[in-house]
């Protein structure tokens, strides 16, 4: 009897995880950092990247610093979105790494 209940709960959890994966992939955050526009989903996957027209007029070192900072900012926003969506979908469950 207990085994059946555990199997049912595991299937329910699997279903919730699949739903969460779809939701996180569809949740897009957009950032604009010093003219660099990055769209990233809540799974931390970059969806699009646009550079300003004059970007290549900067030194390589400056371009690297700006790109790094822009990507870091996009990751922060995507992680916030992931945490918000995870809380909604998991109904307050305390899952390590998601809170």
Question: What can you see in these coordinates?
Answer:
The chain is α+β, with helices and mostly antiparallel strands and 99 residues long. It has a domain at 24-90: Nucleoid-associated protein YbaB-like domain (Ybab, Chain: A), CATH 3.30.1310. The protein contains 2 helices and 3 strands, in the order αβββα. The protein has helices spanning 2-26, 60-90; strands spanning 28-33, 36-41, 46-50. The longest helix has 31 residues, at 60-90. The protein starts with a helix and ends in a 9-residue tail after the last helix. The model has no long low-confidence stretch (mean pLDDT 87).
Stretches where pLDDT is under 50 for at least 5 consecutive residues are none
Kindly report the CATH topology of the domain at 24-90: Ybab, Chain: A
Most strands sheet: 3 strands, antiparallel
The ordered string of helix (H) and strand (E) elements is: HEEEH
**Structure class:** alpha+beta
What order do the strands of the largest sheet run in, or round the barrel if closed? Answer: 1-2-3
| Radius of gyration using CA atoms only | 19 Å
The global form is rod-shaped
**DSSP summary: helix tally:** 2
Which range does the strand content fall in?
15-25%
Average residue pLDDT:
87
Task: Give the C-level CATH assignment of the domain at 24-90.
Answer: Alpha Beta
Structure in a nutshell:
The chain is α+β, with helices and mostly antiparallel strands and 99 residues long. Helix content is 57%, strand content 17%. A three-stranded antiparallel sheet has the order 1-2-3.
């Amino acid at each position: 009897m207990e085994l059946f209940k555990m199997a049912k709960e595991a299937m329910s959890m699997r279903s919730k995880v699949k739903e969460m994966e779809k939701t996180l992939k569809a949740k897009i955050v957009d950032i604009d950092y010093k003219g660099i526009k990055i769209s990233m989903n809540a799974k931390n996957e970059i969806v699009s990247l646009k550079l300003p027209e004059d970007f290549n007029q900067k030194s390589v070192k400056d371009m690297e610093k700006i790109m790094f900072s822009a990507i870091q900012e996009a990751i922060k926003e995507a992680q916030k979105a992931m945490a918000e969506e995870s809380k909604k979908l998991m109904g307050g469950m305390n899952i390590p790494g998601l809170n």
